[in-house]
Amino acid sequence: MLTLSRAARLVGASRVALQLKIRSGELPSFDGMVSAEDLLRLYPDIRLDEDGGFEQVREIKERAFGRRVRERLLPSQEILSQRLYEQSTELADLRAHLQRYHAMMEAVRGRIGEQEALPGMAALGAFLDAQLAEILGATEAPNALAVMDDMLRIMSAHVTLHPSGHDFFVEGADTLLEAALKAGLAVNYGCSNGNCGLCKARVVSGEVRQVRPHDYALSEAEKSQGYTLLCCHAAVSDLVVEALETGSAGDIPPQQIVARVKALQPLGDEMRLLHLQTPRNNRLRFLAGQNVTLAAGDTSAELPVASCPCDDRNLHFHVARDPKDDFARQVFEALRPGDPVTVFGPWGDFVLRADSPRPILFVASEAGFAPVKGLIEHAMSLDRAERLHLYWHSALPSGQYLANLCRSWAEALDNFRYVAVTEGGAEALVERMAREHADLAAFDLYLAGPEGFVDGIAKALDRQGFPAAQLRAAAR
Question: Of the residues 74, 293, 325, 401, which has the fewest C-beta atoms closer than 10 A?
Fold first, then answer.
């Protein structure tokens, strides 16, 4: 039996795809687990190729996010050798058990031979001989999923968090904290550098290994109870960990960080991407969709983060050209790579309901796409939403300035749909959504854009009877 996350990686699918097959009855499940036999029945062509089979979905996502696909890094030599040692130990233990079972069967066969004169014993002996001959003479092909699962256990470790039940994989040289953030999980942390102790968590089962130095000292009592620092340790084996996770935007304290301009990239004539990079030992902790205040020189502005917290060191912002906005002029005319920009925040509660079972509608107008982009990337990292739909409205000549990115998401991911809206107002857009979705109330809806547009959409949704509790909006 396999967890849904592990099964999805083995067959190169998403968890959402497997959940849909479970819901339709195509794939039986038992207490959240699926069997290898049922997976092979649904995916008979699964094979072990040079990429390990289970890399496909991650590569698609990383390309769709516009990131450079990371090189396939092996774990450190120490962790890799320890994982191989543990698998060898497990194999040796299995062989020892098989030898003992074989010896037991030989002893049973001998006892039966001694009692062949009794009624039925001869027939029982013949049956046992036939069964043993069939088993020992069998030459079955290896189970492809079993082979791939063994490889997966060497290349990565599966971590389950308590009490939430969220899970993720630790790959390459990632620490537990880095792997959790890449999976879209909002675990508690501070400096991410081994100094503050905020990422302290208890290892319930499994083994970890320190891979980075840290100054924070755990007490002897904490060590004896299995506590470790997520930012400085990697998983040697599959783990169960008790860890705090952020439940709401209010759980994250405001921070002040001096970042540097990594890049300035035009997104059409009227929009610019401001890419900031924080120091390695002082990253911004935030939730997708939140705002921060940026200060450069004598100017400042509050802007939404247009990137996912799964990469907390690289922060993206969409800055529109505006001659009346001093900060916008600074971005378009003065800032250069390497310049310092002070980041204050985060602010706001325009964030995902991470554990909501409902599919998601995203509605953005003009630069309202910036916070929505962060939410979409976060939802993709979590891989829990059954469907993701984006409606991006623009009445400007420059239109949807990242339309190619949205189209790449739609092409790469089966559960994502993108609609560019260039005509009509708020009322017409809501009517269109109502036509295209039989039950709007079945969705969570995230709405961002100019204040007039957001108010118009909210009022039109109210007239449609959309539940107010399922709407989150951000107006600028």
Answer: 74
Q: What is the domain-level CATH number for residue 319? A: 2.40.30.10
Mean pLDDT of 111-135: 81
pLDDT digits (tens, 9 = 90+) for 360-377: 999 999 999 999 999 999
In a domain, 315, yes or no: yes
In this model, does residue 107 exceed pLDDT 70? yes
- In the chain, how many domains are there? 5
HEC profile of the chain = CEEHHHHHHHHCCCHHHHHHHHHHCCCCCECCEECHHHHHHHCCCCCCCCCCCCCHHHHHHHHHCCCCCCCCCCCCHHHHHHHHHHHHHHHHHHHHHHHHHHHHHHHHHHHHHHCCCCCCHHHHHHHHHHHHHHHHHCCCCCCHHHHHHHHHHHHEEEEEEECCCCEEEEECCCCHHHHHHHCCCCECCCCCCCCCCCCEEEEEECCEEECCCCCCCCCHHHHHCCEEECCCEEECCCEEEECCECCCHHHCCCEEEEEEEEEEEECCCCEEEEEEECCCCCCCCCCCCCEEEEEECCEEEEEECCCCHHHCCEEEEEEECCCCCHHHHHHHHHCCCCCEEEEEEEECCCCCCCCCCCCEEEEEEHHHHHHHHHHHHHHHHHCCCCCEEEEEECCCCCCCCCHHHHHHHHHHCCCEEEEEECCCCHHHHHHHHHHHCCCHHHCEEEEEECHHHHHHHHHHHHHCCCCHHHEEEEEC
* Minimum mean pLDDT range among 71-85, 120-134, 198-212, 448-462: 71-85
Same domain, 464 and 390: yes
- On whether residue 462 sits in a domain, the answer given is yes
Better-predicted residue by pLDDT, 98 or 406: 406
Q: Which of 49-53, 124-128, 203-207 has the highest mean pLDDT?
A: 203-207
Are residues 104 and 175 both part of a single domain?
Answer: no
pLDDT at 65 over 60: no
Residues 399 and 367 in one domain: yes
Domain that holds residue 156: 151-242
